[in-house]
């Protein structure tokens, strides 16, 4: 290894630009070979410091071959040094885009968070596979370090959402560079239930899909209501009224341009007599939640907000009730249920059992259930006892 280092590092000046670090001295090469063979821990640490200085000072000018050479040297040295020296090396190399990749992987996989942390949170040299490997197998401290990276892919946030504790979840959701899959959002909505702080963090994300957002708001409202009523039982009616008003305002404020356009389109189709079961089914098969919801509401003759509340519930019975009132066939109902599962990442529905339920559901019964929903929606806030 020493002769390879000497050959490649003997002249590290870029022939094109004329720029680059100065020559590596023969004394340092000899010292490296001697240190690896017979040197004490203290001597290895000092050699590591000098090699690190050499790399950091000329990192931008080194060729791929020279970086690979440093990779070999660092790997040999870090196998034989103490934790504090490894941690210092990690903190110095982490911000460098051209850091030796194998060395960065070794440091990232270290069980000691003082070593792995700087690399996991900052290094652009780590590949996706290494990050996911760490996220699946290492400590919560390792996951927290990953959550602070500049960019987080949806594949990575899926693992963080599944394994992370509350602090990991908070940092991940707060990270503007984090991206989430539909399944990841669904898992987060379930994870943050009952934690007002995490609900707020997730609800403030501009990329949270509307159907997940509405489900989140519904959960947050119930949680806030319980806490406020427990603290002020004499103001239970005021609290219920306030929560209902806030929920309505939030719903209106978060109406996306797409949702408005989808509802306008469906309204136009309905008024022209062109909205039918086939069109709503096509919306569902294309994964168009807002269009499907608005179409189902129109055919069932219910307010679109009411249909939306039913559509985002975890149970499928509400969808079947709307569809029965709308006079839909089972094939259309199945398409709508499949759309909900795909968008939310929910477990698959037992379609055989669901069809039996739908076939047994009478239109008059479905109408009664919808009337009950209307009564609940329009009911006045309870008046507290004197």
Task: List how many beta strands DSSP finds.
Answer: 0
How much strand content do the residues show?
A: under 5%
Structural class of the secondary structure composition?
A: mainly alpha
Number of helices: 23
Order of helices and strands: HHHHHHHHHHHHHHHHHHHHHHH
Shape: elongated
* Computed Rg: 30 Å
Largest sheet: none
Question: What do the pLDDT scores average to?
Answer: 81
First-to-last CA distance: 87 Å
Low-confidence stretches: 1-26, 380-386
Explain what this protein looks like in three dimensions.
It is a single chain. This protein has 386 residues and is an all-alpha fold. It has helices at 2-9, 26-38, 41-58, 64-78, 83-93, 101-108, 113-122, 128-137, 140-147, 154-163, 166-174, 182-191, 196-203, 210-231, 236-253, 257-271, 277-285, 289-300, 304-311, 317-326, 330-344, 351-360, 363-378. Helix 6 crosses helix 7. The longest helix has 22 residues, at 210-231. The chain starts with a helix and ends in an 8-residue tail after the last helix.
Element layout with pairings:
Layout: H1 2-9, H2 26-38, H3 41-58, H4 64-78, H5 83-93, H6 101-108, H7 113-122, H8 128-137, H9 140-147, H10 154-163, H11 166-174, H12 182-191, H13 196-203, H14 210-231, H15 236-253, H16 257-271, H17 277-285, H18 289-300, H19 304-311, H20 317-326, H21 330-344, H22 351-360, H23 363-378
